Amino acid sequence: MKSHKSFTLIELLVVISIIVLLLSMLMPALNKTKEKAREIQCMNNLKQAGMAFINYAGDNNGFLPYAYANGTPGWYFWPQNIYPYYNNKYLLVCPTRVKIAGAYAGFGELYQTTYAMNCNLNWKRIEQFPNSTKVWLVYEGWDRTFGWRQIESTTFQKLDIIHNGGADILYLDGHVAWRKYLNWEGIANQ
């Protein structure tokens, strides 16, 4: 009669520990990949927002919208002004911010955003800025109430550092770039 050779308990534990070790090495790489995908989606959101700003300016004699303004019937913020040009209430929400915050406060409201517009550009013409490749238009500087911030010399303190040690920035010429903290270049009034 033939005997069947089977795994011993020790051999089984060794195989399981090797599998666990391989999975533990793989998980950080998968998490980095997921965050990179969220960063790319965020950049895509900003790129589409840039197209909405350009279309808005095209319909308004080259003027950018107000970051915020008091009008009739009340306060207006930049997402309200460009909404007709993007028509997607989730476009202005960074997927990483939603993941960090869990449930995004005010997420269901039409004009909420996790991005901030540079209010130095309030109702100014795009052509006023000849060096538009260095002018920040919208960036990850979320203000819980308004979605706008003033760009100052302390800009780095007002940006959200949520994508692998940096932030995504939409420039006035329409391009989007990721900038690492301490490597943020370009102030709005260049």
Q: How do the helices and strands line up, and which of them pair or pack?
A:
Layout: H1 9-59, E1 68-70, E2 75-77, H2 78-86, H3 95-101, E3 116-118, E4 136-139, E5 148-149, H4 155-158, E6 166-171, E7 176-180
Query: How many domains make up the coordinates?
Result: 1
Count of helical segments?
4
Helix amount, in percent?
25-40%
Beta strand count:
7
Q: How do the strands line up in the largest sheet?
A: 5-3-4-6-7
State the shape. elongated
- Reading the helices and strands in chain order gives HEEHHEEEHEE
As a percent range, the share of strand residues is 5-15%
**Residue-averaged pLDDT, rounded?**
78
Largest sheet: 5 strands, mixed
What is the SS-derived class?
alpha+beta
Distance between the termini: 89 Å
Uncertain parts = 101-108, 153-157, 186-190
